[in-house]
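Follow-up to my earlier ticket, as requested here are the two runs.
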Amino acid sequence: MSEIKPGLERVAELLRRLGNPQKTLKFVHIAGTNGKGSTVAMLASILTEAGYRTGLFTSPYILSVAEMIAMDSIKISEARLAELREQMQGHISEMEDAPTEFEIMTALAMLYFAVENCDIVVLEVGMGGRLDATNVIDSPEVAVITAIGLDHMEFLGETVEQIAAEKAGIIKPGAICVSYPQDESVAEVIRRKCRETGVRSVFVNEAESEAVNSSLDGQEFNYSSLKNLNIQLLGEHQLLNAAVAIEATHALKSKGWRISEAALRAGLAKAKWPGRFEILRKNPVFVLDGGHNPQSVAAIVRTLKKYFPDRKITFLYGVLADKEYEAMTKILLSIAKKFVTITPNSPRALPAQELAAFIQGLGGKAMARESVERGVESALEAAGEDGIICALGSLYIIQDAQNAVLCREES
């Protein structure tokens, strides 16, 4: 699904041919650079706990496109996916301007959610917002903007303000906008879009979020008048992502959605999002995170320092060549014991040998491995029994790293 062709014309035509199923659905639409996945997971979990039939559309997938579509936390079956794809194929083949795979999956998701009578869909933007295929929908109930940073600059713009303007394209008349705390220049872009569309904006107040307890098993926190909330997701930034989910819940309630405090608490506590500071084992500690830009890597480093103060980390590290891996690596060097480099499962991957050479050029210790399995083995050896390993750099290492660690645990 690597082809990127921004624009709404193709997906709109495909949906017209399918009878515009999206027009029968209600949405929470979520854009941003970091934190989208965690936020959609928490929101979908809350809505499911509230008793709503909840659709979830996310991207990218790792192994199967079926991972992109779920309802009440259960992903679509391969058989159902194939059936819907077959149903759409005639319409796709008749189109002069062929839709991209992402546009096809977006339309397929809309069809699935409509047929299954979803009450509400939590819809994650693929890239950007304004011209993303998911923005084919009419006004969402709530437009959510998560943390914004530099990413996909070749498509979205060279400054955070330009990128913010693209992401703010999901804000439409009739919605309520809920945003993560942003830098002032980014916040002003969002506020301006809200003024233009007559939309009420709500920004999470960082001062109202208070950590209570934290361990490798989860976090307890207070937000505003809500006390002793619990989430499984780790890292201080996840407390703010949870606050975004809470404010989005409040916005939905103001529009008539019935969501009790008990459902809010249970939804937050049950939410999981694989590959977000996920602890795969504890002796040695093995952390897995799909962070793949400087902003997310900085958050990972802050979290590692919090849980493992004054410790050096063995990094299992694989990146895509078109990401800002130079800046990411410099952030990691401050707490790195050693890097074990691997090649992610993507045609855009930077070869492990090149990444190791780059790290060595910066004065870091690095060794390249030909597979994720060998990388995991070498990282465990380098860390020792009481060490700490963190695998990161790309979403495309998550599944292979999980499998490699699980296989070693079972053997």
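Run two:
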Amino acid sequence: MKVNFTDNRLKEKIYQGQRISSEEASALYAWDLHDLALAADMRRKVVFPKEEVGFILDRIINFTNVCEAGCAFCAFHAKADRVEPFELGLDEIFDRIESLIKAGGTQVMLQGGLHPHYTLDTYVELVCNVKKRFPEIYLHSFSPAELIHASRKSSVTLDEVVSCLKNAGLDSVPGASDLLVDRIRKIASPNKLTVNEWVCAMEALHRGGLNSSATMTYGMGETDREEIEHLAVIRDLQDRTGMIRAFIPWSFSPSRTRMSHIPPATGIRYLKIVAIARIFLDNIVHIQAGWLTEGLKPAQIALSMGATDMGGVLTEELVVKATGIETHTTRDELIDIIKNAGKIPVQRDSEYQVIQRFQ
């Protein structure tokens, strides 16, 4: 593609390490992928100059799929009639955690739906029981939507929810964001939470001393500018709080959902979003390569386009699997993928501290 004067000015701004505007970020979608990759990798070196790529040994435990939100983009909740309704008992949860610890894992992600009968006490009891049995495990669990849900069901403030969960042993909360655009949310998840409610939940976590992450589920019929609108909400929140450890983009998997008419996003789109996010989110250190939805090869390429982390091995992931996508990996496979990308693999903990390097 020919670079015009405006692109040259924007390139100069990016390479000087300056913050770009939302309008400028929208212009990056038209850039040549190679130019975008070079610019993104340069910006990665500004915030993370090491040539290391991390991963964590963790396990997602989906403890229920009973959910009153009934989102149109989800094939996992019981109302979607794809997966039978279930709730795991404590013994089943304990068995899964034990197997993770035996494999050298360090982090558990407890993930559930917005169960109509779950109150704050339900979540607190679950955290207390897990931490009592496995005090060494790091609990990176629940979601902003579940915090709002607990607040409503128990008629308490978000600050009280966060305080109770932290005192019970919760270590951090994934900032599951879907797409932070209310126009899309009214179509895809009208019964879940609004953009403002997501922000309020995240700010409550920050006030309570808990860190988080931020995700982006793109490809749900949004425009380029709406994707940047999503990133702007995250960047503004990070400016105020500094609480976001990582940004994780992944594409919407439309198969088997009520939004199956939407064509799946391409791999090129994924790589562009990784690169644009790296340039725009100048206040977030880590961007994860989304191997679970994109596949291992595109995730490997993302390591040259601004991503610094491969996320977790994610034993037993069920939500994406419900859409028909089944991607699996192991510690050894991630190590090989990272090495073949010309990077140094490191096993990390939940706070992005290195546990072991693999030269």
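The only thing I checked on run two: Confidence is low (pLDDT under 50) at residues 1-5, 317-327. Let me know what else you need.
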